[in-house]
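Predict structure. Chain length: 187.
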Amino acid sequence: MLSFFISHPEVAVDASSPIEEWGLSESGQIRAGQLSGLDWARSIRRIVSSTERKAMETAGILGSALSLRCTTDRELGENDRSATGFLPLAEFEAAADEFFARPSLSVGGWETAAHAQARIVAAVRRLSSDDARPTAFVAHGAVGTLLFCDLVDTPISREHDQPGQGSYFSFDASTWTAMHSWRRIGM
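Prediction complete.
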């Protein structure tokens, strides 16, 4: 069964609100709108999103263009970083490097990469087993990278991270193999 993992495009960062409540920026909304124009998008018959606002907005834009209702699943959420909340970009990148480099250790109280990988893999396998329609999973970059590493049977590594927010890859959920690595949604 051909499936797609899509990371939300750019967000409107608001350091004063929880990360889970951040929505798409104007450019993120435009890029999310470009999804339905990609050749493969017309094959999608089901959309399942993380419960975080930025992912739900992305799924909603895609669903509206394809006349599909979206469902959500909490287990598709980004790695839990609530222990630190918002971090300035340089600090965030250093923490993310550590998150991928030491998957069994918690970085500043974050969910470990190993736990987040087990969670996202289990969720995608469960959701794929209960419905064989071509599915778009709309979620987040770090958990998408962890899923991709599992699909290509390689250790967790940031080397396989998305090239930027608003990227996707396709995979066969029945054979559990990636069809290609991350690609950017139109620029």
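Summary: The helical segments are 26-33, 53-66, 89-101, 113-129, 141-151.
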